[in-house]
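User: I'm preparing a small set of examples for a lab meeting where we compare how different chains pack in three dimensions. I only have the primary sequence for this one, and I'd like the structure in token form so I can line it up with the others. Please keep the answer compact; I'll paste it straight into my notes.
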Amino acid sequence: MRLYRILLENYRGVRRSEVVFDPTGVTVVHGPNEIGKSSLIEALDLMLRFPATTSHRDVQAVRPKGRAENPVTEIEVGAGDYRLRYRKIWRKNYGKTELHILEPSAKQDQLENHEAQARFEKLLAECDVDLELWKLLRVSQDKPLGRESKEEPLGQPTTFAVRPAVAAALGTGARRPSDGGAEGGVSTAFSGPQERLFMAVEREYLLYYTPKTGEPTGKYSQAMKELAEANKKASEAEQAMVDAQGILAEYGRVNSELKGIEEELNALRGDIDGREQLLAEAKLLEEQLRQLKTRLEVATLVADAANELAQRRAELEDEQTRYEDAKQKCTTAENAHQQKRKAADRLEVVSSLFADALALAEKDVECLRSKELPARLEGAVAVAEAAQTRIEAADTQLARNSVDKDALVAISDAFSAWDKALSALEANAATVRVERLSDAAVTVNGPGAAEGSEAIRLVDTVTLEAPGIVRVVVAPGSGEQARREKERKTRAAYEKACREAGVADVSAAQAMADEHDAAVAQREIALAELNASLSGVKSHGKDLVAIRQLAVSLRAMIAAYLERRPATADTLPESIEIAQERQTEAQVAAAEHEIRLKTATNEANATDKALALSRERLRALERSLPQLDQAVKRAQANMERLPALESPERLEQTRSEHERAEARLAELNPDQLASVQENKRKVQFQLQQDATRLRLRSAELRVLIAECGERGPEEAAERARDHAAQAQHQFDVLWERAEAAKLLRETLTRHRSEQRARYATPFRELVEKYAAAVFGSAVNLHVGEDLTIASKTIGGATVPFNSLSTGTREQLALLGRIACAQLIAPGAGGVPLILDDTLGHSDRQRIDQIAAILDRVSGTGTQVIILTHAPERFRIGSATRVDLALP
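Assistant: Understood. Below is the structure token output for the 887-residue chain.
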């Protein structure tokens, strides 16, 4: 079901309020307290529960106080393919109900009263609208989240799982009563003999226990009550013996208290009689004050009437003088208006002549200016084409040579690094000196060894050998090897840079870079010439072809204009300067004439306004004179109806009497006097009641004393103990049978619940996903088979739901409702999620996180309605906001 709109009229303190909701997103309805936010949802609830003619107290409570209007409620909802407007005027026995089927168009209809209500309920049932689920998802101010109540004993709805729409969404195969399933129940995995056994055990269990609460019932409950009653009577009999001893002591205490109360009552009666006399005096003074006040008010009315008559006569005389003056001013304004209007009409006649002359001058200037343009355009095109040719040649050369400044710098840097590494290698290498001491042959193998050399740089392994005598292998140290490796790597990097640039060495790269720079400079010069040639003509065409075609078109247009130029006009000026002078002269003449015409028109319009104001003033005075005359007559008649004005001396005497009476009445202070007297009477009444109660108690105690002597408490106690023993035996027999049935039922129920618990997995996963956004990714929730959150676990610590903080309970309870609302598609029994001033115990950070979840859920098509007095608490970017405080 989707909720599109709610309208309230004369509802509690709301005269009229209409709210339109986002049907597929979040709507935040906000406003101060007592403005009627909760009334919106209450009205929807009443429309779904009661007919318009009901006298139910819930409907009577919404009637406006102090006004006779009837409450009116109207909603617009969507259910399945239908869009419905449903309206009720609440009135006992004479209420009215209207239903308008707006969509689909093929089923549009209008119904009233009983037919309308029956059709509305039938359509909701056809579209699988689960109204009970709507109540479960709704969060109201009188049902805080996470708090235990009669409807939600665990602080959460315990019947989510048995709603048909929820069961269908979770894949439990829920069955409605009409489908043969248990009412509101969920289909289980039990079937065949197992189910028949379970039902037989259930029937046996129900002989001893109630189905919902598991309380004892039937014979078992009766036996339990009889046992309790027998034990109670036995205990009472035992207590009766003890009570008999206390009766005598209480009898003496009651008679003593009664004597003290009677003495206090005698003293209180005298005090009350004295105050009665003072109250009578205050009452006489109040009557005297009312009479004196009436006389003073009448005297004031007479004086006011005389002043009003004089004022009205003066106003009438002033208005007659203003009327004669306005009449003269109106005649003068009419004469001035006729003169100014004639002058403006004469100037309007010659305006077209000035406009024609200005238009011809402007066309002549345009024609002469256009004569020079074709040649200039053609010259610019020629220069641009030559520059384009040079640009294309430079681009061809640049395509063959890619060695720019960046490439040259890369090659030069690589060469410098290699040269530096080579120098370091040679400078730090050890030297091996070879000297022949005999004619024996000596060979030297290794880098740096040359024929006949005596000194060898040791940059790599070198072998010295005298064949048949000795072989010496000399290897460089670790420092020489590192420098050698660095020289090898830098030489490889330099050679790679040369290969990538396509040059032999750094000198060749320098030469190619110079050629590249020269080509870039030539291209920039040609591009500057191209831009310069086009700078003055690029506004005449998007390319050179268009500009050349424009030049041809301009020559043809100039020739055509010269042919159709009026023969009666002055000849075409010889130069554009002369043409511009003529244009300026025509503009000046036209402007001067326009100023004269505008001045004359403004003056005529001003006289129009002045004349209209004069006439309106005259008409107003003509209307007001009869009214003032009538006011004078009414004041005169009012004066004649009133009594004669009293003398000042008599009036002053009346005021003095009024002041003395007020002073005495203030001294008596009748309100305080009456308040004290009322309290004294209440005390008197209470004391009289206490005395009566004590007298009755004294009589009762006398009867009890007499009865105790007749009853024999010991024999009664012995009989009660025997009866209690018999009741205990009967109860023990039934207890053994009841416990056996209960144990068997619990065993079967546990096995069935284990199978049902699997169906809670999709719901738990969705709630955990949302809980992770609020409490962190390490959170785990335990969800029961009735889809209530049993506990929360973080970091290995598990806390039961009812032991969590108030804020955490309300956050988890709301996340459970959000998950349930999201699981159910709107067309499959889904209903809006309505939150009325919730999350009162949550901090800012978690409210923001839940707001983000609501924003995400609304994107899936779930309708969310938030009612709040503080809209800043719910910062949801995509939400539609409705401010009830705005008109």
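A couple of notes for your slides: The chain is about 65% helix and 10% strand. Confidence is low (pLDDT under 50) at residues 172-192.

User: Perfect, thanks.
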